[in-house]
């Protein structure tokens, strides 16, 4: 659904007046732009979605500060970029604090490569997990394999299986719950 420049400006004015439908329309119009921008930056769907949600939340809180001399999308992307930078700084600070409090302990963990025993345990756990996955119905096996072993995004899985993204999300959630039940029964 293509939004005209005029309808976007009208929605911005209505949003400034507190109209919830205008907020919703702006969210629908610009969600993919902000989310795609963040997905490219973070390379992580969860972070991209979280930052996108916070971007719109902050933008709607500060909608009265928006200067119409600039494009609304540019304003949103700027907010999004700043939130991402804040997140990176917070994570670095957290890691540095962790390193300070544990000193050499953390450095040793960060530098260690898995031992032969660690690799053997991992391989055994993976073999058990694969055996459990094979107990699921084929369509659940497929979404789990595409998501976790092929590391495909929801959108890519949806294209691969020719299904809507929401169906993929629901199938994956259901598959994980069923797999958890199989593992608990052991």
Automatic annotation (TrEMBL):
<dbReference type="Pfam" id="PF08281">
    <property type="entry name" value="Sigma70_r4_2"/>
</dbReference>
<dbReference type="InterPro" id="IPR036388">
    <property type="entry name" value="WH-like_DNA-bd_sf"/>
</dbReference>
<dbReference type="GO" id="GO:0003677">
    <property type="term" value="F:DNA binding"/>
</dbReference>
<feature type="domain" description="RNA polymerase sigma-70 region 2">
    <location>
        <begin position="33"/>
        <end position="93"/>
    </location>
</feature>
<dbReference type="InterPro" id="IPR014284">
    <property type="entry name" value="RNA_pol_sigma-70_dom"/>
</dbReference>
<dbReference type="GO" id="GO:0006352">
    <property type="term" value="P:DNA-templated transcription initiation"/>
</dbReference>
<keyword id="KW-0804">Transcription</keyword>
<dbReference type="InterPro" id="IPR007627">
    <property type="entry name" value="RNA_pol_sigma70_r2"/>
</dbReference>
<dbReference type="InterPro" id="IPR013324">
    <property type="entry name" value="RNA_pol_sigma_r3/r4-like"/>
</dbReference>
<keyword id="KW-0731">Sigma factor</keyword>
<feature type="domain" description="RNA polymerase sigma factor 70 region 4 type 2">
    <location>
        <begin position="131"/>
        <end position="179"/>
    </location>
</feature>
<dbReference type="GO" id="GO:0016987">
    <property type="term" value="F:sigma factor activity"/>
</dbReference>
<dbReference type="InterPro" id="IPR039425">
    <property type="entry name" value="RNA_pol_sigma-70-like"/>
</dbReference>
<protein>
    <submittedName>
        <fullName>RNA polymerase sigma factor</fullName>
    </submittedName>
</protein>
<comment type="similarity">
    <text>Belongs to the sigma-70 factor family. ECF subfamily.</text>
</comment>
<dbReference type="Pfam" id="PF04542">
    <property type="entry name" value="Sigma70_r2"/>
</dbReference>
<keyword id="KW-0805">Transcription regulation</keyword>
<dbReference type="InterPro" id="IPR013325">
    <property type="entry name" value="RNA_pol_sigma_r2"/>
</dbReference>
<dbReference type="InterPro" id="IPR013249">
    <property type="entry name" value="RNA_pol_sigma70_r4_t2"/>
</dbReference>
């Amino acid at each position: 659904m293509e939004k005209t420049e005029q309808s976007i400006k009208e929605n911005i004015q209505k949003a400034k007046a507190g109209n919830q439908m205008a907020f919703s329309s702006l969210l629908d119009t610009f969600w993919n732009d902000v989310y795609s921008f963040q997905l490219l930056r973070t390379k992580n769907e969860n972070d991209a979605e979280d930052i996108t949600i916070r971007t719109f939340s902050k933008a709607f809180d500060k909608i009265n500060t928006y200067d119409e001399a600039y494009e609304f999308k540019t304003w949103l992307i700027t907010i999004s970029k700043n939130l991402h930078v804040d997140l990176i700084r917070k994570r670095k600070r957290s890691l540095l604090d962790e390193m300070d409090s544990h000193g050499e302990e953390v450095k040793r963990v960060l530098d260690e490569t898995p031992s032969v025993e660690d690799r053997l345990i991992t391989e055994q756990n993976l073999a058990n997990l694969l055996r459990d996955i094979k107990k699921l119905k084929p369509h659940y096996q497929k979404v789990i394999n595409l998501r976790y072993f092929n590391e495909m995004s929801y959108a890519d899985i949806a294209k691969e299986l020719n299904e809507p993204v929401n169906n993929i999300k629901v199938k994956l959630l259901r598959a994980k719950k069923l797999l958890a039940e199989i593992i608990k029964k052991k």
